[in-house]
Amino acid sequence: MQNFLSNLRQHPLVQGAISRLGLNIFGQSSKERPQTWETHPLKSREIVYLEAPHPSAEVARTVSYALAESGAETRLYGFEVLPQIWRESGEAFSRPVILHRGDLLPSLHSFALVIDATGLNSLGELKQLDDDVLRWLPILPEDGRVICICRPWQFQADPFAAASQSALPDLCERWAQNAHRTVHAVILAPQAEPHLSGFLRYLLSDRARFLPSQTWRISDRPQTAITDYARIFEQQSILITGCNHPLGQACARILIDNGATLYCTDDPSQAESTAQLCHSLGAHALTFDEAGIASLPRLSGILHFRNALDSELLDARKLIEAQKLAPNARGLLCTHRAFGLNGFVSAFSRNPAYSALTLNALSIDESACSSSEISGQAELCAFLISPESAGLQGQLFCVPPLSHDGRLQH
Amino acid sequence: MHHSRRAVLIGGLRTPFVPAFADYRSLSCIDLGATVVSGLIEKYALPRQMLDELFFGCVILPPNSPNVAREIAIELNLNHVPGTTCSAACTSGLEAIHLAQNAIEQGECDVAIAGGTDSISQLPLTFSPKVAQAITPLLARGKPTFLDWCSAFAQLAPFDQILPGIPRIAERITGEILGCAADAMAARNQITREEQDAYAVESHHRAAEALAAGRFDDELCPVDLPDGQKIYADKLIRADASLEKLARLRPAFVHQGTVTAGNSTALTDGAAAVLLMEEQKALELGYRPLAAFRAFAKAAVDPRDQLFAGPVHAIPKLLQRADLSLGQIDVIELHEDFAAQLLADLKLIQSDAYAKAHLQMDRALGVIDRSKLNIHGGSIAIGHPFSATGARLVTTAANELALHNQNYALVCLCGGGGLGLGAVLERL
After folding, report:
1. Which of B219, B291, B388, B282 is nearest to B9 (CA)?
2. pLDDT digits over A317-336, tens only?
3. B358 catalytic residue (yes or no)
4. Of A54, A333, A401, B206, most Cβ neighbours within 10 A?
5. Do residues A86 and A176 touch, judged by C-beta distance below 8 A?
6. Which of B86, B109, B221, B414 is catalytic?
7. What is the CATH architecture of A46-218?
8. What per-residue confidence (pLDDT) applies to A3?
């Protein structure tokens, strides 16, 4: 009977009738405000963790706690005994980890695979990992994800280890193309393990559903402590330049919803629409001149939306000279045309004069204008400006448009 | 900590707890509260003019008379007695006692009665704001005409949300029914169905033994029903509860879940209250106080996570404020909303990993000695008229300290919204 009732409530006609009559009998929340940043973004998501040979205890510790804290249901595959760290993290957040022994692949409910490949040091091990993952990929759902954690090959003394680690990002790309799944390669520098947590929370969550496969280079960089995931930009001032860009507007909404104090500016010719946007969002309109800059508080983030690289509107030097950057300030350059963007961002990051600002870049396709595409890109921009992505610097991300039927292109 | 003024507990009383929609269905929460207040006045021969104030907790507030405490005073012709009502989910009754304690120690009053009362039988049904906004102005005008009615009717179009809302004991922010939250907590903390049933059976057996031994006699006051009957005893305790019987019950909230009607509290009507006085005043009037409140502590957790984990956070704060360790507590009364909730809380309280991750402690508080916990049964057996449970726990704990010459008791409740509220009593 309970099954019958449970199935009945899913019927669209039943749901419609209940809604129209306002019966509210089936657990509908009376307050359904969507949240971008959640304390438990992976709630009830089943994640499988695999370890390639010579795994890292620090990676295991970070991943175990990140998954448990985020609400994930973790399954360990290929372990004989439940390691202590997984037992502890499961107990700490009442998310017991389940062991799958033997050669049987777990059920079809697994959403994602997280692989610790940081210890791979031979091509034989690489081949074995390839074989294992290829068995897994078809089991993941269409929107399933793979996160492959590896090390920068430059840190490997052994040439075979260096070869294995350098091959992993390419292998991830091949997995993505062959299996039509999203596969992220996370290249984790030594000592950068604590930063992994924010990436897992984002990459495995619904926020990243429109994000295609990327390679992420995480280094050991200072991070602003996150005290409240539900208000991650609380007490942070963020400047958006080019705020009338559709993506700029979408980002502004996310930032305001998550506690940011927002300052918006654009071409003087768009002053009226800038003012209207700020009024509707509760943001501050700003003219990017000397007086405007002087009126700014210390900024934790700068988002720049333009159709091309344009040094006029974004001039970080003015902000640096005016000491308008808070510690660990982050910047994102977002543009339709990527010419020279990679070199710009890379050189900017290496220049000591600009060390006060951590800058990354995002290249988006001009034709990408559906609400899903804008939404996905805005989530990515917000992530790249947030304290969660502290380990990233000087990287260029590319987000191609969705396919004609609204799916990711792998 | 000893203030210059100290609130002391003289004693407590409660109505028998009965299933909702049964014996007390025609009695309001005000009627039930008035019963215990007049019972306390009579039991302790308190001169009526000496009562300074009433504090009552209530979850299901009567819409037309929500200040239940004051209504109780008026009902009893205690017209000089102000009343304050508070609503903090299942912790309401203990919160009312806390308010009374503060008022006495701040010098605002010397003699107070505090407790809680709830009648699920008289749960009001509510219409949507759309219906209320269409109909209420109409009725407020006095004599609506036919055209006024037509206009109000037209405002209801489109005709959705016109039926009364079906009452649910659920979390507002998630829409999750509390039983489902308990089931989820059982799953996450790996509390089996068998463990929950065993706990529930133990609760019933302990309560039945206490009832048979007359342990509750001094804490109960009979209730007069409109038809002339009198209710003398609790009606939910099952001396014949068994694992076999509970095993036959189906999951009540979640398909293939573990929480059943047998290992959950029943919907209950009832009231309970305690008499508090300023210590010197009590001695002047010739009363012998039972206990004093050494500390109170509150906590709140994210209701989207583990809804009933509030006590796990409140108890360490409580013990720290009371400057006591868990081992020094002689009597422990924890509210049992669901066996799953209580067993999960016990597990979390003794988890080092949880303490490090959530409580900023290096180690867990320790293991709660089950021989000290709810020794006369708990809410699963006795019943849980939401707000009344706080005063019930305090009364039972204080009497236990006095009976066995023990020193400290700890009382704690979880509450909707992720609340936890506790108190430590010390015998006088």
Report:
1. B291
2. 788 888 889 988 999 988 87
3. no
4. A333
5. no
6. B414
7. 3-Layer(aba) Sandwich (3.40)
8. 44
Cβ–Cβ below 8 Å for A40 and B250: no
Check A23 against B165: CB less than 8 A apart.
yes
- Chain A touched by B357 (CB under 8 Å): yes
Compute the nearest-CA separation of B361 from chain A (Å).
Answer: 12
Respond yes or no: is residue B150 known to be catalytic.
Answer: no
Residue B1 has pLDDT above 50, yes or no: no
B119-130 pLDDT, tens digit per residue, is 999 998 888 888
Distances (CA, A) of A124 to A137, A160, A163, A166, A174: 20, 10, 11, 14, 18
Chain A touched by B74 (CB under 8 Å): no
Number of neighbouring beta carbons within 10 Å of residue B228: 6
Contact B163 A19 (CB under 8 A): no
Counting every residue written for chain B, the total comes to: 428
The number of angstroms, rounded, from the C-alpha of A15 to the middle of its chain's C-alpha atoms is 34
Domains and CATH numbers, chain B: 7-123+266-427 (3.40.47.10)
- The nearest alpha carbon in chain A to B177 belongs to A27
The answer to whether residues B32 and B58 touch, using CB atoms and an 8 Å cutoff, is: no
The pLDDT value given to residue B67: 97
Q: Which of B90, B109, B180, B412 is catalytic?
A: B90
Put simply, the answer to whether A21 touches B302 (Cβ < 8 Å) is no
Q: Chains A, B: CB contacts under 8 A, how many?
A: 72
- Asked whether the whole model's pTM tops 0.90, one would answer no
Region of A22 please: left (phi>0), alpha (psi -120 to 50) or beta: left
Q: Looking at A267-281, B45-59, B252-266, B275-289, which range is the least confident one?
A: A267-281
Q: Is the pLDDT of residue A39 over 90?
A: no
Residue of A nearest to B358 (CA): A92
Strand partners, B415: B419
Is the CB of A23 less than 8 angstroms away from the CB of B166?
Answer: yes
Angle at A215 between CA A212 and CA A219, to 5 degrees: 140
Asked if the Cβ–Cβ distance from B188 to A94 is below 8 Å, we say yes
Residue B160 has its nearest CB partner, among A20, A28, A96, at A20
In three-state secondary structure terms, B224 is strand
In sequence order, which residues have a C-beta less than 8 Å from that of residue A223 and are 6 or more positions away?
A194, A195, A328, A387, A390, A391
| Any A CB within 8 A of B188 CB | yes
Which stretch of DSSP H or E encloses residue B402?
helix B388-403
**Measured distance CA(A6)–CA(B253) in Å, rounded:** 11
Instruction: Quote the CA–CA distance of A124 and A126 in Å, as a whole number.
Output: 5
Q: Which of A166, A165, A144, A139 is nearest to A53 (CA)?
A: A165
B58 is catalytic: no
| pLDDT at residue B39 tops 60 | yes
Q: Beta partners for A302?
A: A239, A331
- The residue type found at A88 is E
Q: Which residue of B has its CA nearest to A5?
A: B255
Domain residue ranges in chain A: 46-218, 229-399
The whole-number average pLDDT for the span B10-24 is 97
Residue B371 contacts residue B360 (beta carbons within 8 Å): no
* DSSP state at residue A402: P
Q: What superfamily does domain A229-399 belong to in CATH?
A: NAD(P)-binding Rossmann-like Domain (3.40.50.720)
The SS3 of residue A183 is strand
